[in-house]
Each structure stands twice: as structure tokens, then as C-alpha cells.
Write a structure and sequence with these properties.
This protein is an alpha/beta fold and 120 residues long. A hairpin with a 6-residue loop joins strand 6 and strand 7 (101-107). It has a 4-stranded mixed β-sheet with strand order 1-4-3-2, with helices on one face. A 4-stranded mixed β-sheet has the order 5-8-7-6, with no helix packed on it. The protein starts with 6 loop residues before the first strand and ends with a strand. It has helices at 17-27, 78-85, and strands at 7-13, 31-33, 45-49, 52-59, 70-74, 93-94, 101-107, 113-119. It has 2 domains: 1-62, 2,3-Dihydroxybiphenyl 1,2-Dioxygenase, domain 1 (Roll), CATH 3.10.180.10; 63-120, Roll (2,3-Dihydroxybiphenyl 1,2-Dioxygenase, domain 1), CATH 3.10.180.
Length: 120
């Protein structure tokens, strides 16, 4: 029986850890957690959000713009996030409406699709 979601992983281009950390930790506000020493040499870093960890790994030659795969971060104030993202030059894409939620999506600086979602 599956009892929960332990972590998710996204990837960034090899060598982009510093820029990705600035985006995910500093800008989005995800908290950094330590990677086990046994995995430290593989690049990337780990973050946590609530009861789920987000592992940011590195990968070469991946076209992240060609995938619909994404993480959806639940937020308390979607409009505040829209205002925070707009000056960065990140393109905000309106999501297809779904009952009970407001949402939009964007691509992170590495092409990963990100959704922000708020319950109505």
C-alpha cells in the first residue's frame, strides 16, 4: 500500500546549482535541507516544503520545455505571486480552469514547468 508522497525531483542543467538555488530557495522560499553525504557528489541540492521534499538534481542535454511534467505549489495568495513574478520577466501562462481552484503556470529559468494553485 502506498501511504504518502516522500519527495519529488526536478532537474536543472549541470553546473546551474547556484542560479537554481537562488530561484528556488531565495526567490520562491523553499527551505534547504542537507543531502546525505553518500549523494553529495552527484550535484544538485535538496529542499523541503511542508511534509514533502523537493530534490533538485542535475542532468545534461534535457529539453525541459518539451514536457508537461511539473510541480504544483499550493499558495495562499495567487495574486501576490503574480505580482512577485511579473517584474522578473518570467512569462505567466494562464492555466485551463478547473473547479474550485485558481491557478497559473510558468517555466522556471531552466525550462521546468511550475504551477501555482489556490483553492477558491
Amino acid at each position: 500500500m502506498i501511504i504518502g508522497l516522500h519527495h519529488v525531483q526536478i532537474t536543472i542543467p549541470t553546473g546551474e546549482e547556484k542560479r537554481a538555488f537562488a530561484f528556488y530557495h531565495t526567490f520562491l522560499g523553499l527551505k534547504q535541507i542537507d543531502k546525505p553525504a553518500s549523494l553529495a557528489g552527484r550535484g544538485g541540492f535538496w529542499l523541503t516544503l511542508g511534509d514533502v521534499d523537493v530534490h533538485v538534481g542535475t542532468e545534461k542535454d534535457v529539453d525541459r520545455l518539451q514536457t508537461k511534467a511539473h510541480l504544483a505549489y499550493q499558495v495562499e495568495n495567487l495574486q501576490d505571486w503574480r505580482r512577485k513574478l511579473t517584474p522578473t520577466g518570467i512569462e505567466i501562462l494562464e492555466g485551463i480552469p478547473i473547479p474550485g481552484f485558481d491557478r497559473f503556470e510558468f517555466r522556471d529559468p531552466f525550462g521546468n514547468r511550475v504551477e501555482l494553485i489556490q483553492a477558491k
